[in-house]
Amino acid sequence: xxxxxxxxxxxxxxxxxxxxxxxxxxxxxxxxxxxxxxxxxxxxxxxxxxxxxxxxxxxxxxxxxxxxxxxxxxxxxxxxxxxxxxxxxxxxxxxxxxxxxxxxxxxxxxxxxxxxxxxxxxxxxxxxxxxxxxxxxxxxxxxxxxxxxxxxxxxxxxxxxxxxxxxxxxxxxxxxxxxxxxxxxxxxxxxxxxxxxxxxxxxxxxxxxxxxxxxxxxxxxxxxxxxxxxxxxxxxxxxxxxxxxxxxxxxxxxxxxxxxxxxxxxxxxxxxxxxxxxxxxxxxxxxxxxxxxxxxxxxxxxxxxxxxxxxxxxxxxxxxxxxxxxxxxxxxxxxxxxxxxxxxxxxxxxx
Length: 351
What we know:
Helix content is 27%, strand content 24%. It is of the alpha+beta class and 351 residues long.
C-alpha cells in the first residue's frame, strides 16, 4: 500500500477540484482495501473511498481523514460471466466485452470511472443500466466486519440508486459480476431512440456490437461526455443532475407551469417510470429555464456541448462550481416548481 500525507485529491477527480486529504492510501489488492478500511474504522478515522473520481465533488478544504484510492485490477471472463475488480477502468471493461462478442453493456461505453462505482450509482446511459446485467456484488461489510456477496435483488437497484448509495458508510465494493449475452456478435436490443436513429435502425433492433459501441462513443463525445484533457467541456462529472421522477399530480402541475411559461401546446419530455410516475428531462428543464449551453461568465460554466454538464474551465474552485449549481437549481425551481437533485457525491460541501 502506498501512503501519502496532505495529498492532493483534485488530480484524482474528473472535475480536477477539491483540497487535499489528510492521508491518501492507494490499495492494489482486495486484502489491502480491507486492511485500510479496518484501520480507519478501528481508529474512528473518517474514510473517503475514491475510484475513478468521475462522480465526486470535493470541497476546497479537502478531506480531514483517510482517502482510500481503490486501484485493484483483474478481469476474468468465463463464458458469458464477467468478473471485474473494483478498480478496473470501466471503459476498458466495456471494450473487452465487445471484443469477446458479448452483449449487455456495449451502450455504456465511454462512461468514465471504475467498475466498482457502477453498482453504487446503478450507472446507465443510452437505454442500458448495469442493474440489468449485474448478477452479484462482492463487498466488504463494515458493519459486520466481513466480506459478503449480494445478489442483484439484494442490491436494491432503482434509477441511479442502490443499497450501496442508500447506506454509503456500510459497504465497500470489491468485485462485480455480470451476466452477459452471446447474441452471435450482435448487441442487446437498442432501446434508446437517439442511438437507434444514429445507427439507422428501429428501437428494439440489434446491431453489430462494435457499431453500437462506436456510435455511443461518438454521441457521448459530441456532448463532451468522453474524457479529453484538452477539452474543458469534459472537466466535469458528466450529468450533474438526475432526471426528475414525478407523480401524476406533480407532472400535471409541471405541465401546467410549462404551458404558462412557454405557451399552450408545449409538451415537456415524458417517459414512463412505473405506475403513477413519469420521468422528465433535467437537460430540458435547465435549457428552458434559461441556462443554455455555455452559460456563465466565471471559471465554472455549463458545458458548451450539453446543458446537463457543469464544467471547470481550468481555474475554478469547488465553490465556483457550487455557486453555478445552486443558481441552476434555483432557476429551475422558480420556472417549473421542480427541484433538481445532484448526481455526483459531495464531500465536505452540499448544494
